[in-house]
Automatic annotation (TrEMBL):
Keyword terms, alphabetized: DNA-binding
Pfam families: TetR_N (PF00440)
InterPro entries from the UniProt entry: Homeodomain-like_sf, HTH_TetR
GO molecular function: DNA binding
DNA-binding region: 32-51
Protein's name according to its UniProt entry: HTH-type transcriptional regulator BetI
Domain HTH tetR-type: 9-69
């Protein structure tokens, strides 16, 4: 069983690497089953042994673009001791990298995917564990979640455990925060935002701080 899993992950990595390369060099719209299979050195039929469809493969390849974000967290977050400061810093880097790659992040966190790949981020990091970085025990579960609402709620629960937020308020705060973020991401995607990535990130972080502060005990 272990050997089969190792072989499966190795072969999946070839296809993911190929799709990621095409994505970086030609764009998401240029990724095709045939092109990926040729670059990976397999025929198109083999690809379907490991991926449900092209959309699933693109999602795997998209997750590679989380690498800079996760590495930034491992570099800067662990030095902070206050969990609210950590929460804001996590959002700071998430905005920075997602607003620089809005199509990729939108595909990962907001495009509707089938239930069979709901845990795709966790599987991705079992294939490429080196891309996850070095994180504390309470941050790691958040990074392995594929749903942005669940990721943020996990962080808010840590703050609530420290007594800063009431547990009964977490769902409302979480919903508002993600809707606020999604609105900004959509404006960038639709070219409705003339501000720079840095300016959008600063604005978003200011909104998140104002919103979170309004819920603090």
């Amino acid at each position: 069983m272990v050997k089969k899993t190792i072989k499966k992950h190795r072969n999946m990595s070839y296809f993911i690497d190929a799709a990621s390369k095409i994505m970086d060099e030609e764009g998401v719209q240029s990724i095709t089953i045939r092109k990926v299979a040729d670059m990976a050195g397999y025929n198109s039929a083999t690809l379907y042994n490991y991926f449900e469809n092209l959309d699933e493969l693109i999602l795997y390849a998209s997750i590679r673009h989380l690498r800079e974000y996760t590495f930034s967290l491992s570099q800067y977050i662990n030095a902070l001791h206050d969990n609210i400061d950590k929460y804001y810093e996590i959002w700071k880097y998430f905005c920075k990298y997602s607003f620089s790659n809005p199509e990729i992040y939108n595909n990962i966190f907001f495009v509707k995917h089938s239930n069979s790949i709901s845990n795709i981020i966790e599987e991705y990091y079992s294939i490429f564990p080196e891309e996850l970085g070095d994180h504390s025990e309470n941050l790691l579960p958040m990074l392995l979640k594929s749903n942005l609402y669940e990721r943020n709620l996990a962080l808010l629960k840590i703050i609530a455990d420290n007594g800063y937020l009431k547990p009964e308020c977490l769902n409302d705060l979480n919903q508002m925060t993600i809707l606020l973020y999604q609105g900004m991401l959509n404006k960038i995607l639709n070219d409705e935002q003339t501000s720079s990535v840095e300016e959008c990130s600063e604005t978003m972080l200011r909104y998140i701080k104002q919103l979170t502060t309004s819920f603090i005990n």
